[in-house]
Amino acid sequence: MSGLAVDLTLDLPGFRLAVSQGFAPSGLTAVFGPSGSGKSSLLRVIAGLETRAQGRVSFDGQDWQGPGCFVPPHRRAIGYVFQDARLFAHLSVAGNLAYAERRARKAGRNPDRSGIVAALGLEGLLTRRPSGLSGGEAQRVAMARALMTAPRLLLMDEPLSALDDAAKGAILPYIEAIRDGMRVPVIYVSHSVSEVARLAHHIVMLEAGEVRRAGLAQDILSDPAAAPAFGIRAAGSVLRAQVLAHHDDGLSELAVAGGRLLVPGFAAVMGAKVRVRIAAQDVILSRQRPEGLSALNVLEGELTDLRQGQGPGVMVRLRMGADQDVLARITQRSARALALAPGQRCFAVIKSLSIAPLDVGGSGPT
Q1: pLDDT at 366 (0 to 100)
Q2: What confidence score (pLDDT) does residue 279 get?
């Protein structure tokens, strides 16, 4: 079987991890779930750092763990990026990279040093020591060091969790560059919906040590039934888009299924393919095309699903084009007043400024 496959259990005090799951052989797969769901434990098992785990782990048809078989971590050719950078304080940035490169070449692998340095924007940092780096710079070096081992698989354990929003916004394009340009599958652990929506091609959702859902990111993110797992206020959907124009008033114009979107301006070349996350709570629904509103974005679609929660809210899904969905969170009272039902044509109204800069990014291969 191509790619990573696990069928394992790990018993820890007060907790049991039990996962049987195949992972996509390319792109970025997000392992998502609340704190304590087993995300980091799963990565440690994959890396060979949990010798107490029972079961099987294989990659591209090679058993890393199974009956009578255990490949040690240093022979699995895995790159690992932790929550903290864990750089060697006594070495410069160049020295940290050289250390990883020597290990790779000793194992017969040939990393592309210049390509990795360029992809992570490290040209001006090579002579610095870790003590002279910002948190975001240190994480970029940690990612580059992991890539310098020429890994067959890259594991990233909440690499942005210690950074503020500004630092996250600066580093996300570098993770997109890894995802799109390095040709190494990535398993990315996170409990941030916005990170998952922007980066992931596939999602594996963990809860209490077990897989609850797995599949394409756009399908899971736009499924009303999955909204509670992300948190009702964080629920939303992801649209594929193409950059049409950058306007003088600071807005960028995107073509999406169902119409066009105006979003806060961001750096991208004309024609670039991007993805846009739209929070369900920021969407207003109308049965007729609205007029005279300050909101600039109106998308037309077909109502395909309504799902009532425990409280006063209803999650509504609109299909835009062939395979793009928008979620809207409205009240039950509004749903009754509009007499909403599957099959109706509806209009989704979205304020431009409700789309945060972190919610727009490169789409990567689909």
Answers
A1: 45
A2: 93
